[in-house]
Amino acid sequence: MAEPAAPPGRVALAVLISGRGSNMAAIARAAAAPDYPARIVLVAADRRHAPGLEIARTLGLPTTVVPHRDFATRQAFEEALDGVLRAARAELVALAGFLRVLTPWFVGRWRGRILNIHPSLLPRHPGLNPHARAIDAGDSESGCTVHEVTEGVDAGPILAQARVPVLPDDTPERLAARVLAEEHRLYPLAIADFVRHRLQRAGPREEPPRGALAL
Ligand code: GRF
Q1: pTM score, two decimals?
Q2: Which CATH class is domain 11-203?
């Protein structure tokens, strides 16, 4: 039997990115501490030129690319993604600026083991352009939310939130920068909390039968 990728007590975490990768880097910085309860076993991108891949390599993290354009169907792409996650023996998946919406098949296979960060105070402004929408709606505050991934877009159970003010002269870019600083603080904390309170109690992930649609 193959050795587990993470030492006992530290959950094997895969981070999925599509772009810049600043949240991935924040998680990696936190995970460098010896008492952090997770260890990054893989950074996977769905595009070859995601800038975050280079950052991950610089940090000495294992990287891989599963280019979504190479696959004819979403299911084929997700089967490949599932394959690299299983090969890395990932036990928890953190989406960090990952721009694919995952199908019920994938979510079912990783149920209770996929987290996402979204830059709004969910349930307000799920989906695209949350900063512009917060400003247009006249919101006095915005922020970020770490949640479990379920079938609905940005709709899973909320694990943690951080708040920032929306200022009178805000542009979406300025608000995004203020929220992003909070994302970098919140996501590593929320992952650690989730691991300590949920996963370490749940024990190792059991592999769902191949091809089974977990409902
Ligand atoms: C972050 O704002 C995250 O909340 C959203 O996409 C952005 C990704 O930024 N889902 P980065 O790639 O982590 O720098």
Answers
A1: 0.92
A2: alpha beta
